[in-house]
Amino acid sequence: MTVDLKTFANVRALHDSTTNLGEKASAAARMKMPACKAGMTVDQATSKLDTSQPTPPRSIFDELFNQPEFKVEMAERERARIIKADAVIARYGSADAVSAGTPMEAALRAACEPLLGPGETWSTIYRFDGWGSLDSRADMPATVQEAVTCAWPMPETVAAAWAEFRCTDRLTGARYTLDRYCDPPAFSEARRHLVEVILNTAPARSLNNMRTRGAWLNFWANGDMRQSDAEHQAVVATLRADIERMGQRIRGQKAGATDGSDVSHTDTVQSGQQGEAQSAHPSTSSGWTSAEFPAQGVTNRYPPL
Question: Between vectors from CA 197 to CA 191 and to CA 203, what angle results, nearest 5°?
Fold first, then answer.
């Protein structure tokens, strides 16, 4: 930009910014001289000034999102998502069936509603006695823990906890496939935290429960997320105690068989209670199936898989 055009731009800026009619008229008259020195009329100088304004630099995100490779990749992801969404709808029957709340969710919602903060509703950002879904398990108030555990019977075995965890995780995944902005409600996240405590710390009193604990460890080993160091240490310590307990039972059985004692009533290593591996395991359930847990005497119901 020449010196004359710079002068013209300054005078024009004064002309456009002032509301005083006298100043505006004076600036309009003064714009003629620098425009004439630049060899242009006022209109020509104005047009040149407007077209010579630098284009605002594009952000790095604009450049990324407009790359042809990125657009192709996003289109492929969307096609894959649509295929998965069609499969989810076919399994559940409709999109409404996927988003519909389960009986357990309804019970958790009702139990946690009194804990909402002042002026908070389910349609706003909400917390339960100051605790939100992004907060840690360690920070969860006792009131929230009590509401969640009393709203719906807690699983009392590792296998039952794994069954509930898998059902909830699969339903959450199905909802996310249909709506990428769908986040689990805070009461479901609170329940998940407490179920994970059972999976990390509950004793495995049968071989089936030990296998289930192995599946739980494998879930974290192959996932994108990781438990905290404290949680990992807790589940490893529990697994060691499981192995030691099973070892003691096996040694006791062998000792009884060696000395000729009647071992028919000793504390044998259980291979898994009937119904524990079949009914409580999500992979063998379909639709609204009742999962029987004889050890706790509770008939629980899980969402469709």
Answer: 130
